[in-house]
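Reading a protein record of the kind used here takes only a little practice. Think of the row as the fold of the chain written in a discrete alphabet. A record is reproduced here so that you can trace the correspondence yourselves:
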Amino acid sequence: MQRVAEYLQTWAGNFQRNVSDSVSQLSLRDYIRIVIILGGYALLRPYLLKLGGKFQAKDHERGLDPEEMSSGAAMPINSLRGQVRVPEDTEEEDDGGSGTGAEWGRTARRRQRDMIRKILEGEEKRKAEEAEDSDKDIEEFLE
């Protein structure tokens, strides 16, 4: 802990010394340059933000072309939801004796399938419970 405090103290001293040395060595030309850059940024920033907002609004209004939809980059995030396919159990699978990470053994593949099935079953149960709860709420209001 003391070592961390020493590092922080050293860094603070270096920062203070570097800033004071660099500011003391600035000429009038450097100060004018800094003022022009900061002033220009302060004056142009709102206009640049408005321009960016217009481009973004146009982009959102135009929608997606069918060609863009076919590309992987334009695919909506939720488009794959519910499309998980669990591989079937096959008895003719070998042990994958090559030892590479891409070729798992039979038990590892079986464990992976079981885990995916459990996750999907849990998700289905959760959705069914939510549907039942919403049906009960609707029936409650209808009575």
